Amino acid sequence: MAEKKSILKALAGEAQEVPPIWMMRQAGRYLPEYRATRAKAGDFLSLCYNSELAAEVTLQPIRRYDFDASILFADILLLPQALGADLWFVTGEGPRLSTIETHSDFQKLKHAGDVHEHLAPIYETLRILGRELPEKTTLIGFAGAPWTVATYMIAGRGTPDQGPAHKLMVENRALFDAVMDLLTEATVEYLSAQIEAGAEVVKLFDSWAGSLEGDEFTRYSLEPQRKIIAALKARHPNTPIIAFPRGAGERFEGFAKATGADCVALDDGVTPEWAAKHVQKDGCVQGNLKSSHMVTGGEDLVRETRHIVEAFKGGPHIFNLGHGITPDADPDNVQLMIDTVRGG
Ligand code: CP3
């Protein structure tokens, strides 16, 4: 039997001499080959729904860098689109969607089980990747966590403070809860289908978890993820799940136990020493180099990369950035980070 892949060992709780490594947004605008394929597809959404080209951009960083994992090329906002929301991207600004302000906006949406036809090209991308990825590379699927996706669906765009979602939560709790419940169910459907199409690991991105305070964090970040993970584990007990409650701070502690996640992905708001002591004690952690090192490089990058590897050495760890790589990053700095992790 082939040796277990390095990421799967980490997710099973094994400490390794050299941690496996991949990078959020590893297929993206900092790579000239990505920009070329995106131009060929026409725009970002056309690229996401073109299975051949989406598989091609997913493979680009694997060919260039030999990462241990490959993340499906798609977006967290494809699920609201599959539920019937309008979605488009304004170049240089970001996503735009239809908004949810009233119960009648909500009633226009589809049921959780009705998303698969729209998302069929995404499942096809995973099947292509299952055939084309190198044997040792782990294929990761993903979805947004309900709170983060809800912030975009309610506001119709990205917002600095997730204000419209917070407002709806207070002013029309029943409607807000209905949106959250629909997203929770639809996410189970979506990730289950991704696993059936070949995803070996799945990750939940709760990019705006940090703006939930007190009980709201438990109710709207932790609890929906706990439900999704329980439902996925019932259907696919052997598929590891990574949770990324970005901005959770001290609430990273206990998050894996409370949700059933196999790994907690850390942003760069916590020190690796603190996280080794308080989060890694419960299992695998992923992270957490500041993305800006991919722009600035040099001695600082090498020192911080070594620091993180050293701090997490005693337990299961997957090396990654604390958030996605940015378009202004220098591709050479990515290689420097990898070389440093693997022995430099
Ligand atoms: O990590 C990966 O490489 C996998 C693919 C992936 C993308 N988006 C591709 C993408 C993943 C996992 C995401 C997640 C995502 N999408 C999140 C959560 C993670 C995070 O970054 O916090 C969020 C909030 C979104 C929504 C989204 N998509 C926004 C706000 C934007 C515009 C901002 C931007 O960076 O331009 C996107 C666009 C997007 N998603 C791009 C990529 C490669 C850039 C699109 C382009 O080519 O112009």
SSE pattern: HHHHEHEEHHEHHHEHEHEHEHHEH
What Rg, in angstroms, do the CA atoms define?
Answer: 19 Å
Count of structural domains: 1
Number of helices: 16
Based on Cα principal axes, name the global outline: globular
Distance N to C terminus: 31 Å
Strand content: 5-15%
Largest sheet descriptor: 7 strands, parallel
**Cofactors and ligands:** coproporphyrinogen III
Find the count of extended strands (DSSP E, 2+ residues): 9
Which stretches are low in confidence, meaning pLDDT under 50 for 5 or more residues running? none
**CATH architecture descriptor name:** Alpha-Beta Barrel
Structural class: alpha/beta
Mean pLDDT: 97
Give the helix/strand layout.
Blueprint lengths: L5 H6 L20 H10 L2 H6 L1 H15 L3 E3 L6 H5 L4 E4 L3 E4 L5 H5 L8 H17 L5 E7 L1 H10 L7 H9 L1 H24 L4 E6 L8 H21 L5 E5 L9 H5 L3 E3 L6 H7 L5 E6 L3 H4 L1 H14 L5 E5 L9 H11 L3
Parallel strand pairs: 1-4, 4-5, 5-6, 6-7, 7-8, 8-9
Antiparallel strand pairs: 2-3
Helix pairs in contact: 2-4, 4-7, 7-10, 8-9, 8-10, 9-10, 10-11, 15-16
The structure holds coproporphyrinogen III.
Overview of the structural elements:
It is a single chain. The chain is of the alpha/beta class. The chain has a single domain (2-343), classed as TIM Barrel (Alpha-Beta Barrel). Helices cover 49% and strands 12% of the residues. It is built from 16 helices and nine strands. It has helices at 6-11, 32-41, 44-49, 51-65, 78-82, 103-107, 116-132, 146-155, 163-171, 173-196, 215-235, 255-259, 272-278, 293-296, 298-311, 331-341, and strands spanning 69-71, 87-90, 94-97, 138-144, 201-206, 241-245, 263-265, 284-289, 317-321. Strand 5, helix 11 (215-235) and strand 6 (241-245) form a beta-alpha-beta unit. Helix 2 packs antiparallel against helix 4 (51-65) and helix 8 packs across helix 10. It is globular, with a radius of gyration of 19 Å. The model has no long low-confidence stretch (mean pLDDT 97). Bound molecules: coproporphyrinogen III. The site of coproporphyrinogen III has 22 residues, from strand 3 and strand 4.
